[in-house]
Design a protein that fits this description.
Length: 144
């Protein structure tokens, strides 16, 4: 088969994967684009197409592993988002928190939140600790 044709195939594959990476998240297509660029260069030097395909796969997989390790290394210090950002915070009980009676309000910073507990009721004026969020209610336990 004509090696000239393979050059343009590899360049097209690199472009498709590169453009695909722009429109997706996760750095998944970028390694295959890099592998296709290496394959393009090898095809330019008239390397056997079977060998170029093998090198494309090896370079792509190696690049994928390296990028995933770098991305995971940066994820070690993730900050909680959404309702999870409240877990571990201290609150002041404004209204008796009683699961059975369905009552309870706590103050978190400057805001008043509905609260519940899985244990014994918490009396007004005590401090509590947020352990989770259920719907729109904070789940609190007494602070020891």
């Amino acid at each position: 088969m004509d090696t000239e044709w393979w050059r343009w195939v590899w360049l097209g594959v690199a472009a498709v994967f590169g453009l695909g990476e722009i429109f997706t998240a996760g750095f998944f297509l970028l390694p295959f684009s890099a592998g296709a660029l290496v394959a393009f260069v090898l095809a330019w030097f008239n390397v056997e197409p079977t060998l170029v395909m093998i090198i494309f796969l090896v370079v792509s997989i190696m690049t994928l592993v390296v990028i995933q390790r770098l991305v995971r290394k940066g994820d070690e210090r993730q900050f909680p988002v959404g309702s999870n950002r409240f877990v571990g915070r201290r609150v002041l009980v404004l209204e008796r928190v009683d699961r059975l009676a369905g009552t309870g309000r706590v103050r978190l910073d400057t805001e008043s939140w509905r609260a519940t507990t899985d244990g014994e009721p918490l009396e007004e004026g005590t401090e509590a600790l947020i352990v989770e969020m259920r719907g729109t209610r904070l789940v609190v336990v007494p602070e020891d």
